[in-house]
């Protein structure tokens, strides 16, 4: 008995050490110079916590099997995944984290004594874990475009109703039912409602808003782990879970701010896309340009700003873009990349793609750094970006994106817009940039257009 | 002193600390941070390891929890590392 | 779980948080921060209030602890406020 | 019983709320815009914690008397103290904080059960509290110049020895004696040794190093409160104490860095002032200047940088300095104040003095901001500063202050140095600035010299 007590006191101290490592790790992960080390530190923290837990494990076979399967699947996914599919992968992993805590809470349901507080913790942990799991799976489906469902369809409406019902059931379980003895059937209903509720939570949210949802689910998966920590009286679960909860929350807020929308609006309202339909269409002349004309202008310019957007990811054009950048530099042109925080479909999307294509991160500049000197830029090359360069955000108080910070390319001397058509971007609003005096449209798939420019340069 | 009050306090302090530490993360690191956080949420593994397995159902639940949490841990750290290694200065 | 381990953990977390929060304080505020921290260390008052006074000695110790901590609390907050009020922007 | 348990659970929750308020308060106290609110929030946190403690107090009379006396003395000190005496006051208050925890630990010595861990906590808390108290009183004495004692005197050496002895006694008490039953006599010896040890800790440290010592004692007073919190199982004491501990530590580090010395060097070595005596004296011509000549130059300059130092505090010249600044501005001259982080005798000393004299804080600039553009400054007016403008710090690798960041006034077009003699500053090293081509010495008390300039302007 004394021996076991000693072990658990010792474990607790090691858990604290591991918690401090996690904290330091995530701190370092947030800075460019130390990010790799930070990730390593956090992995070390994980290893420490797991290792010290293993010393008095009851069922080693179970553990070996579980960890082995997990290690194989996890490593395979991590090594195989394409950088453009990172959003889906993050969604999936969020789901797994949620599922693990869901199972933990479920199992604890059979172990806890008749203590009402522990019972409440089981209910809440089950709920957060379950919603994170099923919600993440839906987010995964939407992002990988395996799942397409109308917001107005009957099934969506049904599931949304289930989501609200599940919330009410949880509140009932937490605040009222504890007066009675919790019964198995009661809990089974919660299990089912929770899983369906998670689906209902995410399904009505537009595909483009998925990055915000993923961040939020990331946060939830952390909170679920923290609650599991409360349930199991385990402080490293509490700390690590809280850190994830905080990090997810911050990313959610950053994204919402960069889109100038509230989180509530994103989750429960969505863009009022109908309003843009009734809006008077922008009139004016669109001036297309050919690849060879564009080449001539680029060749003679001394400073070029490249603004990538979702279209670059779709066209997988990051490698040719980097090539173009290098050719321009070899030609004596100063090249910078203007990266908008919500360009693409997940936070930092463009940074990851460009990093993958070997663009050094110190030529990437943020809107605040580039906007004040935009008038010194000879050519702004907009590659598959739309909303993030839409001047309505600063000029048209009625626009749905009004107030969103943008990269103000319309102040550059010349603007090239590379896209396939005149269709709008994610927010579904017209872009007056296309009709400006200094704008030229280079129609076509981004990879093809840039590829064309690259071969012109090489000739 | 109630243990839950104290643990709840640790939870609040950690969230506060997390918010402070991460609030100024540059946008370059948003994606790696997300997947790094993902890996950390695999800490559920530690919880999964201490579950009772008195019944068959509990045994299965523990196995599943361990497996999924492990996927998170291994997948999360590896992919984050892969991503971070791509970031280079000039 | 040992209560002391947990409280020790709260202590470590708080120091970590404190270091993060204060690390970038501008030099204008060094003196006010010092006297503000001074006031906060008067929190010993809360400890002094719950002391036993079974013996005369303990009674005297409690009275003295309460008095000195109170000096810190009242003096510290007032002087910090006085100082901060002097800082003005143009 | 159940009622009392409920009260204490409720108290604990309120303590947590109070802790969060403290954390937020100190966070806001660290930013210029929110500092006043931050101090208020921290006072609110204190009020909350004290109020909730009072609800089940046993001996109300004691409490009323104690708090009343404390409130009266504290308020009187706070309202009467001159801004130039803030360092002494902080030293005194640190001491009071330490003393309170010292008494707490002492009282608990009679209440704790025979639990070795609590016994260890009592020993440590007694020690930190006691050393903080007696050390602070010595620091107070040195700062207010009521106490003058030679570093080499016999009594200093004796007390220093006692300090080391007290440390050994503490280690013995913590690690070895707990095997035996703690006896009263044993503890009494600790009490005495601790108080003497605190004196011995501070007494050999040079008067000029007192600010670093005060910060450190500030930190100690926090740590002492945190340990008292561990002893009493009280989380708000732990959190608030830790915050103070962290804040004191950071200020200590900032100061040590700005002086380019290690904390160990400051506490246990001190400046090797003998070396500067043997150094070859700086040769060269010193060019004095009269008040009226200085006035003519100032009148015709378009940008002036004022660098105040310890001498301004000694001369109480901050008000005339502000007046001079205003007259210069009225004359169309751009006026800035270059504030070195360790100018004066405590961190932020110059900021507080100038704020007292109504100089707005946005004309105060830090070395890093002003050094790069120093060559555009017409006149740098050095008022009772010496070490913080000593170019040896950048030019003479052998100098004791080499490596310390300075305000590089020697790069300004003209430098006026206002001091009473050619004597050196706190660090005891010669200042080659006085012999530079572009330097003019305006000898005399700073208040008189500046006063003279002001009357010239007014005529
Ligand atoms: N990053 C995030 O975390 C995040 C999260 C949530 C929402 N969002 C939202 O996503 C949007 C991101 O803005 P964005 O400017 O990057 O993208 P966008 O506004 O969605 O525009 C993308 C543009 O790329 C073009 N495109 C698509 N495929 C292409 C291809 N193969 N070649 C060339 N062009 C192609 C499309 O026009 P064509 O069809 O005419 O080619 C489209 O106009 C913002 O509204 C933001 O609020 C972002
Ligand atoms: N601020 C802090 O927290 C702190 C902490 C620890 C140590 N220190 C040390 O203190 C020093 C501060 O540098 P500092 O440049 O401010 O001061 P300093 O180097 O100590 O020099 C002060 C100068 O003021 C002159 N002075 C004294 N009374 C005067 C009066 N009434 N009128 C005109 N001049 C007068 C003195 O010269 P005369 O006698 O010729 O007039 C002296 O040279 C640094 O060495 C720093 O490391 C500061």
From TrEMBL, chains B, C:
Keyword NAD belongs to the record: yes
Annotated transmembrane regions: 6-23, 35-54, 60-80
Reactions mediated catalytically: NAD(+) + NADPH + H(+)(in) = NADH + NADP(+) + H(+)(out)
Cross-referenced Pfam families: PNTB_4TM
Keywords (A to Z) from UniProt: Cell inner membrane, Cell membrane, Membrane, NAD, NADP, Translocase, Transmembrane, Transmembrane helix
Coiled coil spans: none
An example Gene Ontology molecular-function term: NADP binding
Annotated GO CC locations: plasma membrane
Xref: InterPro entries: NADP_transhyd_a_C
Subcellular location as annotated: Cell inner membrane
Record membrane topology: Multi-pass membrane protein
Domain NAD(P) transhydrogenase alpha subunit C-terminal: 9-89
An annotated GO BP: NADPH regeneration
Keyword RNA-binding (UniProt): no
E.C. designation(s): 7.1.1.1
Source taxon at top rank: Bacteria
Known function: The transhydrogenation between NADH and NADP is coupled to respiration and ATP hydrolysis and functions as a proton pump across the membrane.
PANTHER family associated with the record: NAD(P) TRANSHYDROGENASE, PROTON-TRANSLOCATING NAD(P)(+) TRANSHYDROGENASE
Full protein name: proton-translocating NAD(P)(+) transhydrogenase
Organism of origin: SAR86 cluster bacterium
């Amino acid at each position: 008995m004394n021996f076991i007590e000693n072990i658990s006191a010792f474990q607790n101290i090691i858990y604290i050490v591991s918690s401090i490592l996690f904290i330091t790790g995530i701190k370092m992960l947030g800075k460019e110079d130390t990010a790799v080390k930070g990730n390593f530190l956090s992995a070390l923290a994980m290893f420490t916590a797991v290792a010290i837990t293993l010393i008095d494990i009851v069922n080693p076979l179970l553990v070996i099997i579980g960890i082995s399967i997990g290690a194989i699947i996890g490593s395979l996914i991590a090594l195989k995944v394409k950088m453009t599919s990172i959003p889906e992968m993050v969604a999936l992993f969020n789901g797994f984290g949620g599922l693990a805590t869901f199972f933990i809470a479920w199992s604890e349901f059979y172990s806890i004594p008749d203590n009402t507080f522990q019972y409440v913790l089981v209910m809440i942990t089950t709920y957060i874990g379950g919603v994170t799991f099923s919600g993440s799976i839906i987010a995964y489906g939407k992002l990988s475009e395996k799942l397409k469902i109308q917001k107005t369809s009957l099934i969506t409406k049904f599931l949304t109703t289930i989501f609200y019902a599940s919330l009410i059931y949880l509140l009932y379980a937490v605040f009222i039912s504890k007066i009675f003895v919790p019964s198995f059937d009661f809990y089974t209903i919660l299990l089912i409602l929770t899983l369906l509720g998670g689906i209902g939570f995410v399904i009505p949210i537009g595909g483009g808003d998925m990055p915000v949802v993923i961040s939020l689910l990331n946060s939830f998966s952390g909170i679920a782990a923290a609650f599991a920590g409360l349930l199991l009286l385990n402080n490293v679960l509490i700390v690590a879970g809280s850190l994830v909860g905080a990090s997810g929350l911050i990313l959610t807020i950053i994204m919402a701010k960069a889109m100038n929308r509230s989180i509530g609006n994103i989750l429960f309202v969505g863009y009022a896309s109908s309003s843009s339909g009734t809006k008077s269409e922008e009139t004016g002349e669109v001036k297309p340009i050919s690849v060879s004309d564009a080449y001539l202008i680029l060749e003679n310019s001394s400073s070029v700003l490249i603004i990538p957007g979702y279209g670059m990811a779709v066209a997988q054009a990051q490698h040719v873009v980097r090539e173009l950048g290098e050719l321009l530099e070899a030609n004596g042109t100063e090249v910078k990349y203007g990266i908008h925080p919500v360009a693409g479909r997940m936070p930092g999307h463009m940074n990851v793609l460009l990093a993958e294509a070997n663009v050094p991160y110190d030529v990437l500049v943020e809107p605040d750094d580039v906007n004040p000197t935009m008038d010194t830029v000879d050519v702004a090359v907009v590659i598959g970006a739309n909303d993030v360069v839409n001047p309505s955000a600063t000029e048209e108080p009625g626009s749905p994106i009004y107030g969103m910070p943008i990269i103000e390319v319309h102040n550059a001397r010349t603007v090239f817009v590379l896209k396939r058509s005149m269709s709008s971007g994610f927010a579904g609003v017209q872009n007056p940039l296309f009709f400006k005096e200094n704008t030229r449209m280079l129609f076509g798939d981004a990879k093809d257009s840039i590829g064309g420019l690259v071969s012109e340069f090489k000739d | 002193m109630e243990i839950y009050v104290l643990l709840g306090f640790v939870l609040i302090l950690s969230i506060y600390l997390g918010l402070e530490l991460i609030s100024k993360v540059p946008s370059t690191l948003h994606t790696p941070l997300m997947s790094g956080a993902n890996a950390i949420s695999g800490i559920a593994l530690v919880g999964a390891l201490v579950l009772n397995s008195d019944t068959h159902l509990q045994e299965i639940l523990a196995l599943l929890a361990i497996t999924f949490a492990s996927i998170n841990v291994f997948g999360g750290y590896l992919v984050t590392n892969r991503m971070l290694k791509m970031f280079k200065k000039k």
